[in-house]
Amino acid sequence: MWHILHHKLKDFYHSDLELTQTLPCQVSSITFFQSHLKFLKKKEKKRKPTIEISVSCCEGRNLEMAEGFLFNFAERILVGLASLAHQELGLPWRVKAEITKLKDTCSLIKGVLRDAEEKQRNHNHEVTVWLGQLKDVLYDVDDLLDDFSTEALRRQILRRNEMVKKVRVFFSKSNQLAYSLKMGHRVSAIRKRLDKIAADRTKFHFTDSPVESLLEVKERDQTYSFVREEEIIGRDDDKKKIVKLLLQSELEENVSVVPIIGIGGLGKTTLAKMVFNDKNVGEHFQLKLWVCVSEKFELKLIVEKIIEAATGSKPERDLQMETLQNILRDNINGKKYLLVLDDVWNEVREKWLNLRNLLLGGARGSWIVITTRSGLVAEITSTVLPHELEGLSKSQSWSLLKQMAFKEQSHESNGSHFEAIGMEIVEKCKGVPLALRAIGSVLFTRTEAEWVKVKNNIVKYITQQESGIMPVLKLSYDHLPPHLRQCFAYCSLILKDTEFWVEDLIMYWMAQGFIQPLSGDQDLEDVGHEYFMDLLWKSFFQVAEEDDSGNVKRFTMHDLMHDLACSVAGTEYCIASLEAENADERTRHVLFEDELDASWKILSTLHKAKKLRTIFLPDGSLNQSICNALISNFRYLRSLNLSFSGIERLPHSIGKLKHLRGLYLIGNENLKKLPSSLCRLQNLQTLRLSGCSDLENCRGNKKRGKGVGELRELNGLNNLKGKIRISSLKNAIPEPGSSYLKEKLNLKHLKLSWRNEENDDDDEEEEEDDASNEKSELVFEGLEPHQI
Ligand SMILES: Nc1ncnc2c1ncn2[C@@H]1O[C@H](COP(=O)(O)OP(=O)(O)OP(=O)(O)O)[C@@H](O)[C@H]1O
Ligand SMILES: [Mg+2]
């Protein structure tokens, strides 16, 4: 089998070989990094093998929050505090007692958090300040817990690797005492801060609120079927397509279902109204029913609404379901009906099937039209291909903007400068009618200068206007469970208009501890992928590229969805500007958008933001001393992206970033070597090195001498988990009879590329002599993985 793969790979060396195996977990990362980087051979001048490593550690505990998931955060912190008792840290009883107090206070506060968050949503300023202070302390508790678990992991590794001398020094009494003292002080300082916050809560008279209340979403206005078609711009083709579908006679099912799907404010309801009021549709169906479903998908409620639509009067109150379903079926059975279920959010198939079963008695040719933002709703309900609604064209958008911004019969817009400014505004509304209407009404009777002002602050107008698009889009966010809220908020750090790799996003989420598997044997990447697909189904993302099997590889975010992510992200996220110095003490994640021509300003921009967990820098040239300062100043980093920054070396102090999970160094062509201290990063999950073409090796331990830099270094690393990707394998040095990967039962993905993936357009001829064949055979024999 392995021989066949090897030959295939040689034959098609432009493509990658990817083997996937499902295996259990655990990791030893110290030796892991040293050894893997040995693939980077010094001798090869042209293209050195590069490796991408992604290791999943078991912990995914520390959490962050944007709007509306503080409760969830507190809950996770409590679990972390409780599990401290099981870690072998040899803490004295005084420290343990402090931790217990901390846990009790945390639990007390958690009890009122739902009520507090509700009050915050109703714009209670004092509560918002109180929650902000609490959030800050919880972040610190989270860092503390991460410190404890890192320490526990370190002790485990030292013991496991039987580093006798080190273990003796490490576990010496004086060392233990110093550690306990240091941590004791930290715990008690945090405990005091939390006590104060707990005491302050009494001022607000919060109530212990039930669990469900967080997911309560504000009720929307009921929709109705009337529409003034003169006000509708475009949509004729969409209407024709759906009407044609409804009027066709060759149908297999009695009742068919077509969903109209698209993001909030795109015009789904409006299109459904146009279809509902179409003359031919009116003549075709015996019965037409318009029902606004919205958030509450309760069978009884919906049946009552359908009866009301069919009979013109509400059924009596308190009727049994049995009676209601009889009335419903009496009214629709045997009739060819059209039922519009507007604004459906229910994604539970069982609930849908219960309703559908009551509706199946219609005559052949009956139709249900559903409008929804969710791809999953479409998936569970549709019997035909869903109608995916697109944005209005630019000229249609301009017509709508004009209609809203100028008085009827007014010709002010023609040939004036308004049109040029208007077209730029239109560009930013991305064809979403609700956004165009909202901005259009702001522009009503305004001067040309005021139009320019609006154009320059379009995001502000889109996000802040009470009656604008943001509250409408935010409904989608309010429907998300807490774990997806923080994942979505993190997407505010993605640059607008970029196609983003799904795999990268999942790694970023993992680094922040956002991914919470439901059971211990679930793989973090797999759970992360489920999160991604959930958000994709709910229209937060759009597919940009799929692989041959239909898996999404890259995605984009609609501009308005990006604005939504920014508006819900909260104070801990910051799109930093070198000029504005807008990062502050509360900032935990920072993205620099500006070019880095003045990289020295980064430090002054970030000087208050001591507790950063994410730093994403733009491409550019980062001054080496700034790079060093960044690494030594921000000890709490989880993700550090220094890709394409032009740095030549990583400082030794990188080893002190013990919380670091993701280090991205892609495209740093001048980076010569990695410091040995990298091996101290026990929590590191992802190290991206592709395109670091000048990298030699990780010569961390010179004393080890001759063996360093050879494939055999892999032999001892049998606890490896996760993914290894090795490219330019043709440069590897083979060793007869070796077996580097066979014992690595926890390896899940292995990606081997014969040539350099970064240069796949390079069509340099491969010498096909016997010696080279023999060499490659040996390399692949040695890399044979574990058999399932
Ligand atoms: N083609 C159009 N021309 C003019 N106005 C439109 C058009 N489509 C929609 N609108 C207006 O935009 C607003 C939003 O439209 P609609 O309610 O149909 O969106 P939706 O997709 O159903 O949103 P949601 O997901 O929130 O239910 C409404 O005020 C509607 O009148
Ligand atoms: Mg709607």
UniProtKB/TrEMBL annotation:
<dbReference type="GO" id="GO:0043531">
    <property type="term" value="F:ADP binding"/>
</dbReference>
<dbReference type="Pfam" id="PF23598">
    <property type="entry name" value="LRR_14"/>
</dbReference>
<dbReference type="InterPro" id="IPR027417">
    <property type="entry name" value="P-loop_NTPase"/>
</dbReference>
<feature type="domain" description="Disease resistance R13L4/SHOC-2-like LRR">
    <location>
        <begin position="602"/>
        <end position="754"/>
    </location>
</feature>
<keyword id="KW-0611">Plant defense</keyword>
<dbReference type="InterPro" id="IPR002182">
    <property type="entry name" value="NB-ARC"/>
</dbReference>
<feature type="region of interest" description="Disordered">
    <location>
        <begin position="754"/>
        <end position="788"/>
    </location>
</feature>
<dbReference type="Pfam" id="PF18052">
    <property type="entry name" value="Rx_N"/>
</dbReference>
<dbReference type="Pfam" id="PF00931">
    <property type="entry name" value="NB-ARC"/>
</dbReference>
<dbReference type="InterPro" id="IPR041118">
    <property type="entry name" value="Rx_N"/>
</dbReference>
<keyword id="KW-0067">ATP-binding</keyword>
<dbReference type="InterPro" id="IPR036388">
    <property type="entry name" value="WH-like_DNA-bd_sf"/>
</dbReference>
<dbReference type="GO" id="GO:0005524">
    <property type="term" value="F:ATP binding"/>
</dbReference>
<dbReference type="InterPro" id="IPR042197">
    <property type="entry name" value="Apaf_helical"/>
</dbReference>
<keyword id="KW-0547">Nucleotide-binding</keyword>
<dbReference type="GO" id="GO:0051707">
    <property type="term" value="P:response to other organism"/>
</dbReference>
<dbReference type="GO" id="GO:0006952">
    <property type="term" value="P:defense response"/>
</dbReference>
<protein>
    <submittedName>
        <fullName>Disease resistance protein RGA3</fullName>
    </submittedName>
</protein>
<dbReference type="InterPro" id="IPR055414">
    <property type="entry name" value="LRR_R13L4/SHOC2-like"/>
</dbReference>
<dbReference type="InterPro" id="IPR032675">
    <property type="entry name" value="LRR_dom_sf"/>
</dbReference>
<feature type="compositionally biased region" description="Acidic residues">
    <location>
        <begin position="758"/>
        <end position="771"/>
    </location>
</feature>
<feature type="compositionally biased region" description="Basic and acidic residues">
    <location>
        <begin position="772"/>
        <end position="788"/>
    </location>
</feature>
<feature type="domain" description="Disease resistance protein winged helix">
    <location>
        <begin position="496"/>
        <end position="565"/>
    </location>
</feature>
<dbReference type="Pfam" id="PF23559">
    <property type="entry name" value="WHD_DRP"/>
</dbReference>
<dbReference type="InterPro" id="IPR058922">
    <property type="entry name" value="WHD_DRP"/>
</dbReference>
<keyword id="KW-0677">Repeat</keyword>
<feature type="domain" description="Disease resistance N-terminal">
    <location>
        <begin position="78"/>
        <end position="164"/>
    </location>
</feature>
<feature type="domain" description="NB-ARC">
    <location>
        <begin position="236"/>
        <end position="409"/>
    </location>
</feature>
